[in-house]
Amino acid sequence: MIREIKTQLPQEGTGTAGESVPECNSGSPIVSGGDKFLIDGDALCHGSRHVSPVSPNGKKRAKECQIATMNVCGGMDSKIDEVCEMMSERRIDVLGVSETKKKGCSITTYDRYTGYWSGVNDSERSSQGVGVILSERMNASVKEFEFVSPRLLWIRLKVGLTRIFLLCAYAPDMSKPPKVREDFWDSVREIMTKCKENERIILIGDFNGWVGIRRDGYERNLGMFGDKRVNENGESLLEVCLERNLVVTNTLFSHKLIHMYTWQRQTERSMIDFVIVDERLRAKVKDTRVYRGTNVGTDHFLRDLIEYLPKCLKKVEKSL
């Protein structure tokens, strides 16, 4: 049984974990993507602060964290049960969702999961919409967040000793006017300026862009695997990656085509949903791939990333 508790948000669209949040409105861009990577906080941990990998009940603490992204193609309220069940089955800790078509900004609790939602104003027609769903242990790590627009939402996390700046986005597709797309990428750059030097950026979502594979100028941002096509959205995304030293993890691993393409309709298919990480996390990424059979009524497939977390998690799931 899913219990739903709605919390109002601050007018500015920002908040700090633990504070009450009044009503707010937003209105503009979104994105989706997924992958697996290692966050090694213990490497920075003094010996006197070492935490045993074994919990008090004798069972091992969690070492992996899965981060995923999915375009749900609307109707989020009717799909939330299925999405949470999928997260539980696949042990997903962070799920970025795009095209939710939810209105307003809110924080909603579903049993052991918490959703952060940024949508259009209540007076507008349902469209766009972006959100992040966190497991119980990851939600305990939230320090700050902002509902920027119906296309952009960021959350600041501290997982062990690792500080993460998570940005979930839903980019306007190539059919939208150039000005709309330019404004979106300008907003992404503006948000990136909020990231502190000691924070690691994780960028997830549906970018409606083709980034290609390794080529001149982007050797540090792209791997050798993926779709070779490139479009304007993809170029804009790569410019952001170049400016902020980010890596498109989708292109780092060789997989079958069914585990590479994130969108398919009849004979058309694309890789447009990405999990992108700070270059300082690159060595910790273990895998990035698409999972089939978890489309919850959408033509986008779940893209998943696994990362290893520091043993010094503030909170370990009761089920472990």
From TrEMBL:
Q: Which residues form the signal peptide?
A: none
Q: Which residues form the Endonuclease/exonuclease/phosphatase domain?
A: 168-301
Residue span of region Disordered = 1-25
What the entry lists under Pfam families is as follows: Exo_endo_phos_2
Q: State the InterPro entries in the record.
A: Endo/exonu/phosph_ase_sf, Endo/exonuclease/phosphatase, Swc5/CFDP1/2
Under the heading CDD domains, the entry gives:
L1-EN
Q: What is this protein called?
A: Craniofacial development protein 2-like
The protein's organism comes out as: Galleria mellonella
